[in-house]
Protein backbone atom coordinates (compact mmCIF):
# COMPACT_ATOMS: atom_id res chain seq x y z
CA UNK A 1 0.00 0.00 0.00
CA UNK A 2 1.27 3.40 -0.93
CA UNK A 3 -0.04 6.90 -0.27
CA UNK A 4 0.95 10.54 -0.53
CA UNK A 5 0.61 13.02 2.33
CA UNK A 6 0.30 16.72 1.45
CA UNK A 7 -0.61 19.70 3.60
CA UNK A 8 -0.84 23.49 3.52
CA UNK A 9 -1.38 23.99 -0.19
CA UNK A 10 -2.87 27.47 0.23
CA UNK A 11 -4.53 27.72 -3.18
CA UNK A 12 -5.62 31.25 -4.01
CA UNK A 13 -2.90 33.01 -2.04
CA UNK A 14 -2.03 36.17 -3.96
CA UNK A 15 1.03 36.77 -1.84
CA UNK A 16 2.23 40.40 -1.93
CA UNK A 17 -0.71 41.05 -4.25
CA UNK A 18 1.07 39.04 -6.94
CA UNK A 19 -0.99 36.99 -9.41
CA UNK A 20 2.20 35.12 -10.27
CA UNK A 21 2.49 33.95 -6.69
CA UNK A 22 -1.07 32.59 -6.81
CA UNK A 23 -0.01 30.63 -9.91
CA UNK A 24 3.01 29.27 -8.00
CA UNK A 25 0.73 27.79 -5.35
CA UNK A 26 -1.55 26.26 -7.99
CA UNK A 27 1.37 24.83 -9.99
CA UNK A 28 2.91 23.31 -6.88
CA UNK A 29 -0.38 21.57 -6.08
CA UNK A 30 -0.83 20.31 -9.62
CA UNK A 31 2.71 18.94 -9.74
CA UNK A 32 2.43 17.30 -6.32
CA UNK A 33 -0.76 15.49 -7.32
CA UNK A 34 0.65 14.48 -10.71
CA UNK A 35 3.79 13.18 -9.04
CA UNK A 36 1.77 11.11 -6.55
CA UNK A 37 -0.25 9.65 -9.43
CA UNK A 38 2.93 8.67 -11.28
CA UNK A 39 4.03 6.86 -8.13
CA UNK A 40 0.82 4.80 -8.27
CA UNK A 41 -0.42 5.77 -4.85
CA UNK A 42 -3.59 4.10 -3.60
CA UNK A 43 -4.83 7.32 -2.03
CA UNK A 44 -3.79 10.85 -1.12
CA UNK A 45 -4.11 12.78 2.10
CA UNK A 46 -4.50 16.54 2.31
CA UNK A 47 -4.00 17.50 5.94
CA UNK A 48 -5.68 20.91 5.83
CA UNK A 49 -5.30 24.37 4.33
CA UNK A 50 -6.00 23.35 0.77
CA UNK A 51 -7.34 26.87 0.31
CA UNK A 52 -5.84 30.07 1.62
CA UNK A 53 -9.10 31.91 2.26
CA UNK A 54 -12.08 30.43 3.97
CA UNK A 55 -14.77 32.66 2.59
CA UNK A 56 -13.93 34.81 -0.41
CA UNK A 57 -13.61 32.07 -3.01
CA UNK A 58 -12.96 33.15 -6.57
CA UNK A 59 -13.66 31.08 -9.71
CA UNK A 60 -9.99 30.72 -10.66
CA UNK A 61 -9.00 29.28 -7.30
CA UNK A 62 -11.97 26.92 -7.31
CA UNK A 63 -10.97 25.72 -10.78
CA UNK A 64 -7.36 25.22 -9.64
CA UNK A 65 -8.63 22.80 -7.03
CA UNK A 66 -11.39 21.05 -8.98
CA UNK A 67 -9.56 20.50 -12.27
CA UNK A 68 -6.60 18.87 -10.53
CA UNK A 69 -8.78 16.76 -8.23
CA UNK A 70 -11.08 15.65 -11.09
CA UNK A 71 -8.12 14.12 -12.89
CA UNK A 72 -6.84 12.03 -10.02
CA UNK A 73 -7.48 8.34 -10.37
CA UNK A 74 -7.40 7.67 -6.64
CA UNK A 75 -9.33 8.77 -3.61
CA UNK A 76 -8.32 12.06 -2.01
CA UNK A 77 -9.02 12.30 1.70
CA UNK A 78 -8.89 15.66 3.39
CA UNK A 79 -9.50 17.59 6.57
CA UNK A 80 -10.12 21.30 6.99
CA UNK A 81 -7.37 23.56 8.29
CA UNK A 82 -7.65 26.95 9.93
CA UNK A 83 -7.66 28.51 6.48
CA UNK A 84 -10.48 26.27 5.24
CA UNK A 85 -12.95 26.52 8.07
CA UNK A 86 -13.92 29.04 10.70
CA UNK A 87 -14.27 26.44 13.44
CA UNK A 88 -17.96 26.45 14.22
CA UNK A 89 -19.26 29.66 12.75
CA UNK A 90 -19.49 28.50 9.17
CA UNK A 91 -21.37 25.32 8.63
CA UNK A 92 -20.78 24.43 5.01
CA UNK A 93 -17.20 25.01 3.87
CA UNK A 94 -15.48 24.95 0.48
CA UNK A 95 -14.03 21.60 1.47
CA UNK A 96 -17.62 20.41 2.00
CA UNK A 97 -18.39 21.74 -1.45
CA UNK A 98 -15.53 19.67 -2.97
CA UNK A 99 -16.81 16.73 -1.01
CA UNK A 100 -20.36 17.23 -2.36
CA UNK A 101 -18.82 17.06 -5.87
CA UNK A 102 -17.19 13.74 -5.04
CA UNK A 103 -13.72 15.25 -5.37
CA UNK A 104 -12.56 14.71 -1.82
CA UNK A 105 -13.66 12.86 1.27
CA UNK A 106 -13.85 15.53 3.94
CA UNK A 107 -13.51 13.78 7.27
CA UNK A 108 -14.73 15.29 10.52
CA UNK A 109 -16.62 14.15 13.57
CA UNK A 110 -20.23 15.17 14.07
CA UNK A 111 -21.91 16.36 17.19
CA UNK A 112 -25.32 15.27 18.30
CA UNK A 113 -26.62 17.06 21.37
CA UNK A 114 -23.09 18.05 22.32
CA UNK A 115 -21.83 14.45 22.11
CA UNK A 116 -19.06 13.70 19.64
CA UNK A 117 -19.73 10.98 17.12
CA UNK A 118 -16.97 9.36 15.08
CA UNK A 119 -18.85 7.65 12.30
CA UNK A 120 -17.93 5.92 9.09
CA UNK A 121 -18.00 7.97 5.88
CA UNK A 122 -21.40 7.45 4.22
CA UNK A 123 -20.67 9.25 0.96
CA UNK A 124 -21.63 12.59 2.40
CA UNK A 125 -20.16 12.89 5.86
CA UNK A 126 -18.22 10.92 8.43
CA UNK A 127 -15.02 10.87 10.45
CA UNK A 128 -13.30 7.77 9.07
CA UNK A 129 -13.07 5.76 5.87
CA UNK A 130 -11.58 2.44 4.87
CA UNK A 131 -9.42 2.75 1.82
CA UNK A 132 -7.46 -0.23 0.57
CA UNK A 133 -5.94 -1.90 3.59
CA UNK A 134 -5.96 1.25 5.65
CA UNK A 135 -8.41 3.13 7.79
CA UNK A 136 -8.13 6.90 7.82
CA UNK A 137 -9.55 8.98 10.67
CA UNK A 138 -9.91 12.73 10.18
CA UNK A 139 -10.27 15.68 12.49
CA UNK A 140 -10.42 19.27 11.33
CA UNK A 141 -8.75 22.27 12.95
CA UNK A 142 -10.23 23.21 16.31
CA UNK A 143 -7.94 26.00 17.45
CA UNK A 144 -7.77 26.43 21.18
CA UNK A 145 -10.10 23.48 21.65
CA UNK A 146 -7.69 21.01 20.00
CA UNK A 147 -6.54 19.30 23.19
CA UNK A 148 -10.04 18.94 24.52
CA UNK A 149 -11.43 17.62 21.23
CA UNK A 150 -8.47 15.24 20.78
CA UNK A 151 -9.10 13.73 24.16
CA UNK A 152 -12.65 12.87 23.24
CA UNK A 153 -11.87 11.87 19.63
CA UNK A 154 -8.86 9.55 19.94
CA UNK A 155 -10.49 6.93 22.19
CA UNK A 156 -12.89 6.28 19.25
CA UNK A 157 -10.01 5.07 17.08
CA UNK A 158 -10.25 1.28 16.81
CA UNK A 159 -6.80 0.46 15.44
CA UNK A 160 -7.28 -2.86 13.60
CA UNK A 161 -5.06 -2.86 10.54
CA UNK A 162 -3.01 0.08 9.32
CA UNK A 163 -4.52 3.15 10.96
CA UNK A 164 -3.95 6.75 10.00
CA UNK A 165 -5.03 9.72 12.05
CA UNK A 166 -5.07 12.96 10.06
CA UNK A 167 -5.53 16.44 11.50
CA UNK A 168 -4.41 20.04 11.33
CA UNK A 169 -2.57 21.40 14.34
CA UNK A 170 0.96 22.09 15.53
CA UNK A 171 3.10 20.00 17.82
CA UNK A 172 5.33 21.70 20.39
CA UNK A 173 9.02 22.00 19.69
CA UNK A 174 9.18 22.65 15.95
CA UNK A 175 8.14 26.24 15.58
CA UNK A 176 7.35 29.05 17.89
CA UNK A 177 3.65 29.41 17.10
CA UNK A 178 0.74 29.76 19.39
CA UNK A 179 -1.49 26.87 20.43
CA UNK A 180 0.69 23.83 19.69
CA UNK A 181 -0.03 20.65 21.62
CA UNK A 182 2.39 18.36 23.41
CA UNK A 183 3.04 15.29 21.25
CA UNK A 184 2.66 13.04 24.29
CA UNK A 185 -1.09 13.39 23.76
CA UNK A 186 -0.63 11.46 20.49
CA UNK A 187 2.08 9.04 21.61
CA UNK A 188 -0.20 7.53 24.25
CA UNK A 189 -2.39 6.22 21.41
CA UNK A 190 0.49 4.66 19.51
CA UNK A 191 -0.79 1.12 19.97
CA UNK A 192 -3.82 1.93 17.84
CA UNK A 193 -2.41 4.49 15.42
CA UNK A 194 0.35 3.78 12.89
CA UNK A 195 0.68 7.14 11.15
CA UNK A 196 -0.28 10.61 12.35
CA UNK A 197 -0.71 12.84 9.28
CA UNK A 198 -0.50 16.50 10.24
CA UNK A 199 -0.50 19.89 8.63
CA UNK A 200 -0.41 23.45 10.02
CA UNK A 201 3.26 24.10 10.68
CA UNK A 202 4.80 25.04 7.33
CA UNK A 203 7.98 23.12 7.99
CA UNK A 204 8.79 19.45 7.54
CA UNK A 205 9.20 17.31 10.64
CA UNK A 206 8.93 13.65 11.62
CA UNK A 207 8.73 12.47 15.20
CA UNK A 208 9.61 8.86 16.04
CA UNK A 209 8.43 7.62 12.62
CA UNK A 210 4.96 8.25 14.02
CA UNK A 211 4.05 11.93 13.65
CA UNK A 212 4.50 13.30 10.12
CA UNK A 213 4.21 16.89 8.94
CA UNK A 214 5.33 17.53 5.34
CA UNK A 215 5.42 21.34 5.43
CA UNK A 216 3.82 23.62 2.89
CA UNK A 217 4.55 23.52 -0.85
CA UNK A 218 5.42 27.20 -1.11
CA UNK A 219 6.52 29.86 1.37
CA UNK A 220 3.47 31.62 2.77
CA UNK A 221 5.62 33.94 4.81
CA UNK A 222 9.15 35.31 4.63
CA UNK A 223 10.09 33.31 7.73
CA UNK A 224 9.38 30.09 5.85
CA UNK A 225 11.72 30.37 2.93
CA UNK A 226 14.49 28.33 4.52
CA UNK A 227 12.20 25.47 5.57
CA UNK A 228 12.13 22.16 3.76
CA UNK A 229 9.02 21.85 1.62
CA UNK A 230 7.37 18.95 -0.15
CA UNK A 231 5.21 15.91 0.43
CA UNK A 232 5.57 12.50 2.00
CA UNK A 233 5.42 9.38 -0.10
CA UNK A 234 4.64 6.54 2.27
CA UNK A 235 4.68 2.80 1.81
CA UNK A 236 3.40 0.09 4.09
CA UNK A 237 3.96 -3.61 3.48
CA UNK A 238 3.94 -4.82 7.05
CA UNK A 239 6.60 -2.21 7.69
CA UNK A 240 6.50 1.54 7.27
CA UNK A 241 8.85 3.35 4.92
CA UNK A 242 8.68 6.89 3.67
CA UNK A 243 10.43 9.61 1.71
CA UNK A 244 10.01 13.35 1.85
CA UNK A 245 9.96 14.47 -1.77
CA UNK A 246 10.25 17.82 -3.47
CA UNK A 247 11.99 16.80 -6.70
CA UNK A 248 8.78 17.23 -8.72
CA UNK A 249 8.85 21.03 -8.58
CA UNK A 250 10.95 24.03 -7.75
CA UNK A 251 9.46 26.34 -5.12
CA UNK A 252 9.76 30.06 -5.76
CA UNK A 253 13.12 31.29 -4.47
CA UNK A 254 13.08 33.95 -1.77
CA UNK A 255 16.18 36.03 -1.33
CA UNK A 256 16.92 38.28 1.62
CA UNK A 257 19.65 40.81 1.03
CA UNK A 258 20.89 42.83 3.97
CA UNK A 259 23.33 45.65 3.43
CA UNK A 260 24.60 48.93 4.72
CA UNK A 261 24.00 51.73 2.29
CA UNK A 262 27.16 53.53 1.23
CA UNK A 263 26.31 55.09 -2.10
CA UNK A 264 24.20 54.28 -5.15
CA UNK A 265 26.97 52.90 -7.31
CA UNK A 266 28.28 50.42 -4.71
CA UNK A 267 24.66 49.43 -4.10
CA UNK A 268 24.31 48.67 -7.81
CA UNK A 269 27.50 46.61 -7.83
CA UNK A 270 26.50 44.65 -4.77
CA UNK A 271 23.03 43.87 -6.18
CA UNK A 272 24.45 42.77 -9.52
CA UNK A 273 26.43 40.13 -7.65
CA UNK A 274 23.23 38.95 -5.91
CA UNK A 275 21.24 38.35 -9.07
CA UNK A 276 19.77 34.84 -9.13
CA UNK A 277 18.75 32.61 -12.00
CA UNK A 278 15.01 33.02 -12.22
CA UNK A 279 12.61 35.66 -10.99
CA UNK A 280 12.77 35.74 -7.23
CA UNK A 281 10.92 37.26 -4.31
CA UNK A 282 13.49 39.72 -3.01
CA UNK A 283 13.52 41.32 0.42
CA UNK A 284 16.03 44.10 0.52
CA UNK A 285 16.94 45.37 3.97
CA UNK A 286 19.00 48.47 3.96
CA UNK A 287 20.46 50.06 7.04
CA UNK A 288 21.63 53.59 6.82
CA UNK A 289 22.13 56.69 8.90
CA UNK A 290 21.20 59.15 6.19
CA UNK A 291 18.23 60.05 4.11
CA UNK A 292 18.06 57.94 1.00
CA UNK A 293 15.91 58.07 -2.12
CA UNK A 294 13.73 55.04 -1.81
CA UNK A 295 12.44 55.20 -5.37
CA UNK A 296 15.93 55.36 -6.73
CA UNK A 297 16.90 52.31 -4.67
CA UNK A 298 13.87 50.39 -5.90
CA UNK A 299 14.74 51.33 -9.47
CA UNK A 300 18.29 50.04 -9.08
CA UNK A 301 17.06 46.85 -7.43
CA UNK A 302 14.54 46.15 -10.20
CA UNK A 303 17.08 46.78 -12.89
CA UNK A 304 19.84 44.66 -11.37
CA UNK A 305 17.82 41.81 -9.84
CA UNK A 306 14.78 41.61 -12.13
CA UNK A 307 12.70 40.30 -9.21
CA UNK A 308 9.19 38.87 -9.31
CA UNK A 309 8.37 40.79 -6.14
CA UNK A 310 10.52 43.45 -4.52
CA UNK A 311 10.17 44.48 -0.88
CA UNK A 312 12.42 47.20 0.43
CA UNK A 313 12.83 47.86 4.14
CA UNK A 314 14.92 50.78 5.24
CA UNK A 315 16.29 50.59 8.75
CA UNK A 316 17.34 53.96 10.10
CA UNK A 317 18.31 52.55 13.50
CA UNK A 318 21.97 53.28 12.81
CA UNK A 319 20.87 56.86 12.54
CA UNK A 320 18.84 56.89 15.74
CA UNK A 321 21.96 56.72 17.84
CA UNK A 322 23.25 59.90 16.28
CA UNK A 323 19.97 61.76 16.10
CA UNK A 324 20.55 63.71 19.28
CA UNK A 325 18.68 66.71 18.03
CA UNK A 326 15.41 64.81 17.80
CA UNK A 327 12.70 65.59 20.31
CA UNK A 328 12.17 63.02 23.06
CA UNK A 329 8.80 61.97 21.67
CA UNK A 330 9.98 61.37 18.12
CA UNK A 331 13.05 59.52 19.34
CA UNK A 332 10.76 57.25 21.32
CA UNK A 333 8.60 56.74 18.26
CA UNK A 334 11.61 55.75 16.14
CA UNK A 335 12.87 53.44 18.86
CA UNK A 336 9.48 51.79 19.13
CA UNK A 337 9.28 51.24 15.38
CA UNK A 338 12.81 49.81 15.26
CA UNK A 339 11.99 47.33 18.03
CA UNK A 340 8.73 46.42 16.27
CA UNK A 341 10.65 45.72 13.07
CA UNK A 342 13.19 43.55 14.89
CA UNK A 343 10.45 41.54 16.63
CA UNK A 344 8.64 41.09 13.34
CA UNK A 345 11.84 39.87 11.71
CA UNK A 346 12.01 37.11 14.28
CA UNK A 347 8.35 36.21 13.85
CA UNK A 348 7.29 37.50 17.24
CA UNK A 349 4.16 39.43 18.03
CA UNK A 350 4.50 43.17 18.39
CA UNK A 351 5.38 43.59 22.06
CA UNK A 352 7.50 46.69 21.44
CA UNK A 353 5.72 48.60 24.23
CA UNK A 354 6.58 45.91 26.74
CA UNK A 355 10.18 45.73 25.56
CA UNK A 356 10.51 49.49 25.97
CA UNK A 357 9.06 49.33 29.47
CA UNK A 358 11.60 46.64 30.34
CA UNK A 359 14.41 48.72 28.89
CA UNK A 360 13.40 51.68 31.05
CA UNK A 361 13.49 49.52 34.15
CA UNK A 362 16.96 48.28 33.32
CA UNK A 363 18.20 51.78 32.60
CA UNK A 364 16.80 53.01 35.91
CA UNK A 365 18.32 50.03 37.69
CA UNK A 366 14.91 48.89 38.99
CA UNK A 367 15.68 45.22 38.40
CA UNK A 368 13.22 44.09 41.09
CA UNK A 369 10.35 45.49 39.00
CA UNK A 370 11.31 43.37 35.98
CA UNK A 371 9.75 40.29 37.52
CA UNK A 372 6.43 42.08 37.94
CA UNK A 373 6.29 43.27 34.38
CA UNK A 374 7.17 39.83 32.93
CA UNK A 375 4.48 38.26 35.10
CA UNK A 376 2.04 40.91 33.92
CA UNK A 377 2.83 40.27 30.23
CA UNK A 378 2.43 36.53 30.65
CA UNK A 379 -0.80 36.73 32.61
CA UNK A 380 -2.20 39.13 30.03
CA UNK A 381 -1.47 36.56 27.31
CA UNK A 382 -2.92 33.76 29.43
CA UNK A 383 -6.03 35.85 30.00
CA UNK A 384 -6.38 36.47 26.24
CA UNK A 385 -6.03 32.75 25.59
CA UNK A 386 -8.67 31.98 28.22
CA UNK A 387 -11.05 34.46 26.63
CA UNK A 388 -10.51 32.88 23.23
CA UNK A 389 -11.11 29.42 24.62
CA UNK A 390 -14.35 30.58 26.24
CA UNK A 391 -15.50 32.15 22.98
CA UNK A 392 -14.74 28.97 21.05
CA UNK A 393 -16.51 26.85 23.60
CA UNK A 394 -19.59 29.06 23.30
CA UNK A 395 -19.53 28.74 19.52
CA UNK A 396 -18.97 25.03 19.84
CA UNK A 397 -22.02 24.59 22.05
CA UNK A 398 -24.28 26.53 19.71
CA UNK A 399 -22.86 24.96 16.53
CA UNK A 400 -25.16 23.22 14.13
CA UNK A 401 -24.44 20.17 12.08
CA UNK A 402 -23.26 20.58 8.47
CA UNK A 403 -25.78 17.94 7.45
CA UNK A 404 -28.41 20.67 7.73
CA UNK A 405 -27.08 22.05 4.45
CA UNK A 406 -28.49 19.06 2.59
CA UNK A 407 -32.08 19.90 3.52
CA UNK A 408 -32.76 21.42 0.10
CA UNK A 409 -32.02 18.04 -1.51
CA UNK A 410 -34.20 16.05 0.80
CA UNK A 411 -37.05 18.57 0.94
CA UNK A 412 -38.17 17.68 -2.60
MN1 LIG B 1 -1.32 26.57 6.61
From TrEMBL:
It comes from the Archaea. Transmembrane segments: none annotated. The keyword Hydrolase applies. Gene3D superfamilies: 3.60.21.10. GO terms for molecular function: exonuclease activity. The keyword Hydrolase applies. Residues 393-412 are annotated as: Disordered. SUPFAM superfamilies: Metallo-dependent phosphatases. Residues 1-203 form the Calcineurin-like phosphoesterase domain. InterPro entries: Calcineurin-like_PHP, DNA_Repair-Maintenance_Comp, Metallo-depent_PP-like, Mre11_N. Keywords: Exonuclease, Hydrolase, Nuclease. This is DNA repair exonuclease. It comes from Geoglobus ahangari.
Amino acid sequence: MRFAHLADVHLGYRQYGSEERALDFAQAFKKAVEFAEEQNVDFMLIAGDLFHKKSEMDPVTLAQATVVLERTGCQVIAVEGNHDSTYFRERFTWMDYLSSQGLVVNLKPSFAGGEMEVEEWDGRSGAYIDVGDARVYGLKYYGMLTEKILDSYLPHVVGDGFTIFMSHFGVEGYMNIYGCINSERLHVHRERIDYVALGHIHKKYVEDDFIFNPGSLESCDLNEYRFEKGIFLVEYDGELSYRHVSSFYRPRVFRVIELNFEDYSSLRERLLRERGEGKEVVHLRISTDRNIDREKIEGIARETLNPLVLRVEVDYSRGVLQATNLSVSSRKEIERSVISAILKGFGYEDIAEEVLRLKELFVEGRIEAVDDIVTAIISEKVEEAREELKREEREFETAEDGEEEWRWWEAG
